[in-house]
């Protein structure tokens, strides 16, 4: 039985090409339920392609993805229902309030009325955003917009949370805050987290670490073990070369 | 595949079936319509721009053109009409056409900015999400068309009162058809900057090669070929559907044509947004 069956994420022999360019080549890894897994790779490593496949924006005939035990290709809607996603691009409607943005998302997951409001309250509370519900998304700073997007991704109580470079464009304090928040979500709520990044300082020594480079998995272990007694940045640069 | 693997897969299928999210037809549709309406109401400039365009045609172009174009009595009209009266349904169609393209432009923008991803990764059937988007855009078009009809009435171009009710389904079908065309285009145009060009190649031929500004028999006097092109243009049929509905008459042929075009454009859009084709570009 795969680890995904218990609420985790499983990627097996996934390959994908855009025309002649091989974006992913036989990528396999598993993330156990409640684990925080950092997907580390330089720009162009294939992280966004992997996310597009994980979220079914793109499909490929080669390989399999299981989300909380549900096969994405065979049961896309059931698998997507188990998944919360924070995209690299901002996806908030800036002219709507935070709460309206969340309400829209809740409705796309079939939630409305009191149930939706209760879940929105809980999600905002968890991300320390309860006071901001009535504000226009446009008035929030970058860090708070990201927190809103994370709160939104939790409304339907997913078992797996995917974040594609969620700290891009944020200052150091906001980056550290969001990284800590999401680590807490994994440890407190048992949420399986896949966090794509190219920044080694966002990876904690106890995290699962998958290093992706030129569409292939170079390392798949605990971050502390991959780094050994050297700084992770040094190891990462050595593995991926000057392009990192 | 071994018997054990098959059994495990069957068990997983059963589990997935029980976990399958309930399709929230109404909830998701209302949310998408509400979001589109709020966006529209927040963009007052867009509302006025959408009204100014047909009003300029009605109050300036039609006034100048009136003397040049003599109109005979053709259905659904039962008497001689002025040119302003003739082009009102065509200008309603123009609102639907521009709005359909504007909505698809915003879809290309949404896709580049990411909010389209949010929609497409929700656990509702993709065709329903795209249909909801179409309905949302059409509702906004209908609001604009009614505002235009109200202003036209204020200038003395009044339709039978029943026509104002019966035109609603005609505007809806026409709006869906033109929205579906925009949706299909948006799935094939990858970049925002390319879209303006595509719009010019679609909007202007579609509008001018139709019965919006002149009846087909008038076009036939100039060129049989142009008349035939106008006759197969689905926009012509959307305009005629609206024209007949505004005079409380039913044009079955126009409805059939418009529905067939809606289905064809809808299928094309669904194919365009098929995940096997991919809706995102490769990145990091």
Automatic annotation (TrEMBL), chain A:
Keyword ATP-binding: yes
Organism superkingdom: Bacteria
Domain ABC transporter, chain residue ranges per copy: 9-239
rRNA processing keyword on record: no
GO terms assigned for molecular function: ATP binding; ATP hydrolysis activity
This protein's UniProt keywords: ATP-binding, Nodulation, Nucleotide-binding, Transport
SUPFAM superfamilies referenced in this protein's UniProt entry, alphabetically: P-loop containing nucleoside triphosphate hydrolases
Family: Belongs to the ABC transporter superfamily.
Name of this protein: ABC transporter, ATP-binding protein
Originating organism: Rubellimicrobium mesophilum DSM 19309
From TrEMBL, chain B:
Protein name, per record: Transport permease protein
Native species: Rubellimicrobium mesophilum DSM 19309
Subcellular location: Cell inner membrane; Membrane
Any one cellular-component term (Gene Ontology): ATP-binding cassette (ABC) transporter complex
Keyword Transport attributed: yes
Keywords attached to this entry: Cell membrane, Membrane, Transmembrane, Transmembrane helix, Transport
Alphabetized GO MF terms: ABC-type transporter activity
Ranges annotated as spanning the membrane: 55-74, 86-109, 130-155, 161-185, 197-217, 253-273
């Amino acid at each position: 039985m795969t680890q995904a069956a218990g609420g985790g994420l499983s990627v097996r022999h996934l390959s994908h090409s855009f025309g002649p360019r091989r974006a992913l080549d036989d990528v396999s890894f598993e993330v156990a339920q409640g684990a925080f897994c950092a997907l580390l790779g330089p720009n162009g490593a294939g992280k966004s392609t992997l996310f597009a496949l994980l979220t079914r924006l793109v499909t490929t005939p080669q390989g399999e993805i299981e989300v909380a035990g549900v096969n994405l290709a065979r049961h896309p809607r059931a698998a997507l229902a188990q998944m919360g996603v924070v995209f690299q691009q901002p996806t908030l409607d800036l002219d709507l309030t935070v709460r309206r943005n969340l309400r829209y998302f809740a409705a796309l997951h079939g939630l409305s009325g009191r149930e939706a409001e209760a879940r929105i309250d809980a999600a905002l509370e968890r991300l320390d955003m309860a006071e901001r519900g009535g504000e226009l998304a446009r008035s929030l700073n970058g860090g708070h917009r990201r927190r809103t997007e994370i709160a939104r991704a939790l409304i339907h109580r997913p078992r797996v949370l995917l974040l594609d470079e969620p700290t891009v464009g944020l200052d150091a304090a906001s980056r550290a805050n969001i990284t800590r928040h999401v680590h807490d979500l994994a440890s407190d709520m048992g949420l399986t987290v896949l966090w794509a990044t190219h920044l080694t300082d966002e990876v904690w020594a106890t995290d699962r670490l998958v290093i992706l480079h030129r569409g292939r998995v170079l390392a798949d272990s605990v971050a502390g073990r991959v780094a050994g007694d050297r700084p992770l940045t040094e190891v990462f640069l050595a593995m991926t070369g000057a392009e990192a | 595949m071994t018997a054990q693997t098959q059994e495990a897969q069957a068990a997983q299928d059963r589990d997935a079936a029980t976990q399958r999210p309930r399709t929230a037809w109404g909830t998701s549709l209302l949310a998408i319509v509400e979001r589109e309406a709020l966006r529209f109401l927040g963009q007052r400039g867009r509302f006025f721009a959408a009204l100014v365009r047909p009003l300029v045609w009605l109050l300036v172009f039609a006034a100048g053109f009136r003397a040049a174009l003599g109109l005979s009595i053709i259905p659904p009209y039962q008497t001689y009409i002025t040119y302003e009266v003739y082009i009102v349904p065509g200008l309603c169609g123009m609102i639907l056409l521009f709005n359909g393209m504007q909505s698809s432009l915003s879809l290309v923008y949404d896709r580049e900015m990411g909010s389209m991803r949010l929609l497409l990764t929700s656990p509702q059937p993709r065709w329903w999400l795209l249909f909801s988007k179409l309905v949302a855009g059409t509702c906004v078009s209908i609001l604009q068309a009614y505002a235009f009809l109200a202003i036209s009435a204020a200038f003395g171009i009044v339709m039978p009162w029943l026509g104002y009710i019966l035109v609603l389904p005609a505007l809806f079908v026409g709006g869906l058809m033109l929205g579906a065309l925009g949706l299909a285009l948006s799935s094939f145009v990858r970049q925002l900057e390319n879209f303006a060009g595509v719009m010019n190649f679609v909007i202007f031929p579609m509008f001018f090669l139709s019965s919006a500004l002149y009846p087909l028999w008038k076009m036939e006097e100039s060129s049989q070929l142009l008349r035939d092109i106008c006759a197969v243009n689905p926009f012509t049929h959307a305009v005629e559907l609206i024209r007949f509905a505004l005079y409380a008459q039913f044009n079955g042929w126009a409805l059939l044509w418009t529905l067939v075009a809606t289905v064809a454009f809808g299928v094309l859009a669904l194919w365009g947004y098929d995940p096997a084709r991919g809706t995102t570009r490769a990145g990091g």
